Amino acid sequence: xxxxxxxxxxxxxxxxxxxxxxxxxxxxxxxxxxxxxxxxxxxxxxxxxxxxxxxxxxxxxxxxxxxxxxxxxxxxxxxxxxxxxxxxxxxxxxxxxxxxxxxxxxxxxxxxxxxxxxxxxxxxxxxxxxxxxxxxxxxxxxxxxxxxxxxxxxxxxxxxxxxxxxxxxxxxxxxxxxxxxxxxxxxxxxxxxxxxxxxxxxxxxxxxxxxxxxxxxxxxxxxxxxxxxxxxxxxxxxxxxxxxxxxxxxxxxxxxxxxxxxxxxxxxxxxxxxxxxxxxxxxxxxxxxxxxxxxxxxxxxxxxxxxxxxxxxxxxxxxxxxxxxxxxxxxxxxxxxxxxxxxxxxxxxxxxxxxxxxxxxxxxxxxxxxx
Length: 371
Fold this sequence. Notes:
single chain, 371 residues
């Protein structure tokens, strides 16, 4: 543990390593897209959720799409910080909002890698922190980190907020959590991590510090503020949750997930169901490793809460790995183990993972469905 875990010079190996593995992913995508006759950059900046964010950046909220089954998808399901940044950057620079979204996402990815490194270094040492940042860059759905999506922006705020909690900088942690709360609904996990850690700290020390209280009170304001905005705009206290439910993103406690796994187990290809069970077992095993590793309370609560949020909703199953990607603490046990390797075998392992991640990303991005 070092008081200088957040310095750029100290974080340089992590940032260069992260940039290298993401570059591998992009090269694989460009080559695969060229072979398939597709436009790789369009896949990164102009498809699926990226289109919704760009439209909000250009025209503000108010767009709806009615599907064939009668359900209505409203752009109020998307939080405002990314489109606000896209719009601001497109005003300052001679670029369109879609390109601005890519720039924001790529810049935020480096900020996220830096924050992840800082948390990992604080918990397990600088080498493990650097490996942790690189591992996050080769996560199976890491291709989303190169898209005009919110995952990198959210993870950057979350990682630095957790780092601030570890350094007992409660006001900074709360302020960063506000930004996370304006980025993604999964900021609820970060709010829980800050709140639970603060309560434990107060109980242990038997006193309430003013800065701790301020940080806890500030933390939910971003998430809560947007929920209130939607409520006022729609004239209903539960409007935000109704909007999400229309998208199929309501919380059902995991019923939809269980049904999806069961349908695959009893369907024409039972092996798919077995694979899903194996993936869920792997997630459970990683959570168990994090608990056994005795990760600091805010880091542990955040990681587990992100996983829970990703599993208890009725969202499209294919999006769940992406929804859980901000749970970088789950990679910390593997980072600690890999950090024990010598440099050459470590580079070989990470390079192989980067190629595998890039191949999966190209396959997914060039396919028909959203990540």
